[in-house]
Amino acid sequence: MVRPVSARSALIRILIAADSPTMTSQQICAATTAAGYPEATVRVAVSRMVAAGELVRARRVYTLAPHLRARRVDLLAPRTLPWQGDWEQVVITATGRPAADRAALRATLLSLRLAELREGVWMRPANLARDLPDDLGDATIVLRTRAVDDPVSLCARLWPLTDIDRRARELLEAIETADPAARFTTVCAGLDLLTTDPALPSELRPAGWAVDALRETTTAYLAWFQELSRGTGD
Fold first, then answer.
1. DSSP element (H, E) containing 150
2. Weakest mean pLDDT among 73-87, 152-166, 178-192, 218-232
3. Which residue of 1, 35, 69, 187 lies most exposed, with the fewest beta carbons within 10 A?
4. pLDDT at 161 over 90
5. Cα 180–36–214 angle (5° rounding)?
6. CATH numbers and ranges of domains, the chain
7. Cα torsion for 213, 76, 148, 94, to the nearest 10°?
């Protein structure tokens, strides 16, 4: 099941995926029309996004607001390094924190592609070309460890790899539809899945990991969108 994508969400995703977060009105209409959205619907969405501060209009072009552009980081896949067997680990040491603080920290850790082994213990293979941020707060301790003799089994405990792989296969099949709106909606669902991909080292991924094929297909589709926007002037 793939949920419909609003014109607003479609435009945000298009601008995030594009080479530049700036497009002319004609480029916006060309891209969204190709995705199956009526031009009138798109123009209403653009007006509302400008009013809400999500789009900035200047010199006849529209630019995605900075807080939305931040989602572009690691949109399809984070940069990785050869895995040397180490693991990143974040241990939450404080108790009794407000629910909002707990939810915010959880969202941050998930965005860093860590997974919770048990309450308050988060970890992942140390194969990402990034450092954990310094602003995780006083409630955490960041460690580097060499966790277990059977890292494949540990990955299976940390992430629902079978479910992720099955969902990727479903989306790959659905993307083949000839209907442009349905294809775009499915690609958006693929992007959502890719943001939850643990980006495991190749030696820890299940055989035939369908997420890799989904990433290639989604990347090719987004490249087509980029060419479409570059080829249209105002």
1. none
2. 218-232
3. 1
4. yes
5. 40
6. 7-74 (1.10.10), 86-146 (3.30.70.2650), 160-216 (1.20.58)
7. -150
